[in-house]
Amino acid sequence: MIQEKIQFNKLQDVLKSFLSLHTEIEINLKFKEIGDLGTQSLSSALINCTNLQKLTLDLRVNKIKDAGVQKLASAFIQCANLSSLFLYLSSNQIGSNGVLGLCSVLAGCKSISNLELDLYSNQICANGATSLCSVLLNKTNMINVILNINSNKIQSKGASNLCSGLAECTKLSNLKTLKPIF
Length: 182
Description:
Blueprint: E1 3-8, H1 11-16, E2 22-28, H2 35-46, E3 54-58, H3 66-76, E4 84-88, H4 96-108, E5 114-118, H5 126-138, E6 144-148, H6 155-167, E7 174-177
């Protein structure tokens, strides 16, 4: 029997749950220091979420690096019905390679139309900002995007690439950039 919303505050509880029974999952693991190993476990659990429509993942301040975010993102492609993704990854150790991996996966997630991506205070350079643009440009069904990439290393080149790319996103009806939420 499919159930609607469920919330988790502990990784162990997520791993023990039957996530495939839910259409909306909220996982709050901020400040838990799960690292790349924890994101790998989380990814393995999320792969089975075939009915999932809305996912909120709060993984702020968890020592997640490029490999961890890439592994986590690999689960999203298996969630064929996922239309809303709220991903809070601020204050981790994610660089441009991690963002590139995340963006490559998001580009393949055809059903996502609502995306909130908080990458505040990571190690993202200009290439990472360019990757974000390419995903948004290729997502023809993306309607709402909320993006936070403050306090990274994108510099003027990355900011310019991001702005140029966003200007070409004609399908977007709502775009916001945010300050960090703690």
